[in-house]
Structures are given as structure tokens and as C-alpha cells.
Specification:
- The chain has two helices and six strands; from the N terminus they run βββααβββ.
- With about 140 residues, the protein is of the alpha+beta class.
- The chain has a single domain, classed as Nuclear Transport Factor 2, Chain: A.
- The strands form two sheets. A three-stranded antiparallel sheet has the order 1-2-3.
- The chain starts with 7 loop residues before the first strand and ends with a strand.
């Protein structure tokens, strides 16, 4: 089964109505319909999808998310780190424009053969708070 992610931005919202909503593919227990993530949960899910979905998972967007898998067999050095940074910024601009990256740390670890990625981000349309997301890019797999 292919994953589908639907992002809906709602304009002026009545109280308690979400600004953002994404399909979660979890079934609701009350009626069996597909559930949805709202606002912060929707954005967290969208970011998580960028780092966990394989390229080609989206039928209508076969390039999604596209970026990080191509670095699996690269050396751990400043050039690869810079290219990963560019790719992450491009992924967010294209697929998660709701988010503004405030800080992006990429730390290479030759002993573990991986990059640790830490992103500090904001969601200007929802809140002034800062959030964190972390991921590991394991090389050679």
C-alpha cells in the first residue's frame, strides 16, 4: 500500500479548528474512517515522512522525498556534510514550507559510519515556539 500525505491549509479558522491537517492512515475506533493529524502533529508527521519514506513512495510525487538516500555511500567529510545540509534545506522548502529551519546541525561520526542530524525549527503560522527533530543517516546500508 502506498503512503499518501495530504496537506490542507485552512484560512480564517473558527475556534478549535486546525490550520493544518494530514492523513495518518490510522483508522478511527469510533467509525473506522481514516484519522488525521492536526496542526503540530501534522507538521511533525510531515517532517518525519521526509526522513523515513523511500523515494518513490508517493504515486503522484515519485521524487518525494528524494534526497538523503543518495548520500549512503559517500565519505564522512565536510563536503558531504555541506551537500546533506543543502539537500535538507531543499526538502523542507519543497515539501514542508510550513516550517522554518532555525538551526541545522549535521555531525559526522566515522566510527559509527553515520551522520546525526538535529533540526531546530519554528512554525510561524502556528506559534512562536521552537521545536526539535533528530534523525540518523546511517551510511553504507
Amino acid at each position: 500500500m502506498s503512503n499518501v500525505n495530504i496537506n490542507v491549509a485552512l484560512g480564517n479558522r473558527p475556534d478549535n479548528q486546525p490550520i493544518f491537517r494530514d492523513v495518518t492512515f490510522k483508522l478511527r475506533s469510533d467509525n473506522g474512517d481514516v484519522d488525521s493529524a492536526k496542526d503540530l502533529d501534522a507538521i511533525r508527521q510531515g517532517i518525519h515522512n521526509l526522513f523515513t519514506w523511500a523515494t518513490g513512495s508517493r504515486i503522484l510525487e515519485p521524487e518525494f522525498p528524494g534526497g538523503l538516500y543518495k548520500f549512503r555511500y559517500e565519505q564522512i567529510n565536510s563536503i558531504t556534510e555541506s551537500n546533506i545540509r543543502i539537500e535538507i534545506n531543499n526538502m523542507f522548502k519543497k515539501y514542508e514550507p510550513r516550517v522554518r529551519i532555525e538551526q541545522l546541525d549535521i555531525i559526522g561520526d566515522p566510527k559509527l559510519n553515520q551522520y546525526t542530524i538535529n533540526i531546530r525549527y519554528s512554525i510561524p503560522t502556528l506559534t512562536n515556539r521552537l521545536f526539535n527533530y533528530g534523525a540518523i543517516l546511517q551510511l553504507g546500508e
